[in-house]
Amino acid sequence: MDGMDHDHMPGMNGTTMTMAPPSPHHHEGMTHMTFFWGTRSEILFSGWPGDRTGMYALALVFVFALCALVEWLSHSRLLPPAKPGAVGAGILRSLLHAVRMGLAYLAMLALMSFNGGVFLAAVAGHAVGFLAFGSGAFRKPEEGKAGADLPPMSC
Fold first, then answer.
1. How many domains does the chain have?
2. pLDDT of 140 higher than 80
3. Which of 13, 35, 118, 140 is deepest in the core (most CB within 10 A)?
4. Half-sphere exposure of 42 toward its Cβ, with a 13 Å CA cutoff?
């Protein structure tokens, strides 16, 4: 491709297409690969939250609540204790596990926006969720005997 004019590329039917140089301030379609700070970000969906600061704050609240929900599901007792050989209870626990993992992956995808505020909201959501549901700080003494429905998530 030596000697080729990079501003003009051959098009279809013998026409020539002119390519404009990229603008240094044009970030559309660009994916951040390092952490950045700012309210202009795309989190989970194209164009969301957009340029509005209020929608960015709502996105941070959503990520916080999502991570706290993952902790609640990880440390709650929603189903009665399983009896050996109970296939129905195993299926329900498997569905509950699938929901928990789906929400955890959704939080991970939000973190892949590389936005510093989203990262802090996710860490805070997990911390508050663990404090409320997993640490035992707010558990009554008689509640400490029963474990959670699902095993803890491991790294």
1. 1
2. no
3. 118
4. 9
